[in-house]
Amino acid sequence: MVKPGEFYQRDRKWHPPAYAQNYKTSTSRSPKHPLISLQNSMSEITGPVFGHDDVDPIDRDLLSNFAKPGEGPIGERIILHGRVLDENGRPVPNTLVEIWQANAGGRYRHKKDTYLAPIDPNFGGCGRSITDENGYYYFRTVKPGAYPWRNWVNTWRPAHVHFSIFGTAFAQRLITQCYFQGDPLIRLCPIVQAIPDPEAIEQLVATLDMNATIPLDTIAYKFDIVLRGRRSTLFENRLEGN
Amino acid sequence: MPQELNYLKETPSQTAGPFVHIGLAPGAAGFDIYRTELGWDIAGPNAKGDRIRIEGLVIDGTGNPLKDVLIEAWQANADGIYAHPEHAGEVEAGFRGWGRVITDFETGEWGFDTVKPGLVPGRSGMTMAPHINLWIVARGINVGLNTRLYFSDEERANAADPVINLVEWESRRQTLIAQRSERDGQAVYRFDIRLQGENETVFFDI
């Protein structure tokens, strides 16, 4: 068994740049100096370990995890599912996936959200789950609504679900957003369009998945997530002391 | 056509947005949903070593503090061991070494309690000075920012640290060093993070 080595370097041209002109908030929150490139050490190839004890099964069901008994949130019932993989195409098992989103009207349950769409009394808007041995995860929720935000006067976020994923190492830590196939707001969104490569944007669009749909019940979208992969050759620089 | 390599591309990052608390700290968003929220106790009750507090602000290019930022911390225990299967050695029961920190919505001040980490093995037989790895996400930050927090009372170890010494500009190295003071007999380290502008913090591409 070859001991796995360093992570492949992050392709910074695939990610959005720190400063994206049309996403105004990034102007004063983007470092001007280049990042200092670090070769991985123990501090980067390790990361927090979570177990199935850390979460409850109901945490993955946003249709019921905040609903009053016998009630449920308003909106289009969806299953959001997929696999967490690495760049080598291998599944990432036992990793924590957390999501959050607006309700079907585009309103967040957050004390700082003041959008006029109503709070849904039966919807919290967050979920979490640990991937299984095949890297598979699933959530049940409602499809979030689009909502306006202050960038230009008339700027709308496409429907999206925020994803937070850990992997096995701090170097893999990732937050991203999942969009939905066919949403015309994707191409207008300054946050999405900060990503320079259209193919990279496609990677953030969940696909309608009729095979995973539960007939007469819940429609499904598939969203696979790829975390950084790592080398596994024998010919390594020495990562650790010896 | 030569052979295909068939690697996948990493999923591109997107900002955590202003409502990151709903997902990662719902209590702060204003509601109670999970049995336990993760990340509020970094070291646990049994951790050896010096109990310390870290405090600071995250400041933007206009000089104003961010009030919607979330920071994650990742550190070794007092023996310099990470709670991870690839780091040989034991950590104390309940020591995870990972935590989440959010700012006060009014002032932008943040702080957390932990233990001071020990020296950690570096590459090629080098030793790294005690440090806490930080990852910063917020509205307006398109890809989470990585930095390291070192300690002002570790001058000798800091001077030999291979990562600090990678920073070519000596004046910028100071941005990685938290300044120690004492409050009611406890060590408190101040670590302001400047995203942009004068004394911009050193961020790493890890």
TrEMBL record, chain A:
InterPro entries registered for this protein in UniProt: Intradiol_dOase_C, Intradiol_dOase_core, Intradiol_RC_Dioxygenase, PCDO_beta_N, Protocat_dOase_b
Keyword Electron transport: no
PROSITE patterns found in the cross-reference section: INTRADIOL_DIOXYGENAS (PS00083)
Molecular function in Gene Ontology: ferric iron binding; protocatechuate 3,4-dioxygenase activity
EC number(s) reported in the record: 1.13.11.3
UniProt-listed GO biological process terms: 3,4-dihydroxybenzoate catabolic process
Gene3D superfamilies: Aromatic compound dioxygenase (2.60.130.10)
Keyword Metal-binding in annotation: no
Domain Intradiol ring-cleavage dioxygenases residue range list: 80-108
EC primary class: oxidoreductase
Keywords, ordered alphabetically: Dioxygenase, Oxidoreductase
UniProt family annotation: Belongs to the intradiol ring-cleavage dioxygenase family.
Name of protein: Protocatechuate 3,4-dioxygenase beta chain
Provenance organism: Ruegeria denitrificans
From TrEMBL, chain B:
Keyword GTP-binding part of the UniProt annotation: no
Any one Pfam family match given in the protein's UniProt record, by short name: Dioxygenase_C
Any one GO MF annotation of this record: ferric iron binding
Enzyme Commission numbers on file: 1.13.11.3
InterPro entries xref list: Intradiol_dOase_C, Intradiol_dOase_core, Intradiol_RC_Dioxygenase, Protocat_dOase_a
UniProt superkingdom: Bacteria
Keywords assigned by UniProt, alphabetized: Dioxygenase, Oxidoreductase
Domain Intradiol ring-cleavage dioxygenases: 46-197
Record-stated family: Belongs to the intradiol ring-cleavage dioxygenase family.
Name this protein carries in UniProt: Protocatechuate 3,4-dioxygenase alpha chain
Source species: Ruegeria denitrificans
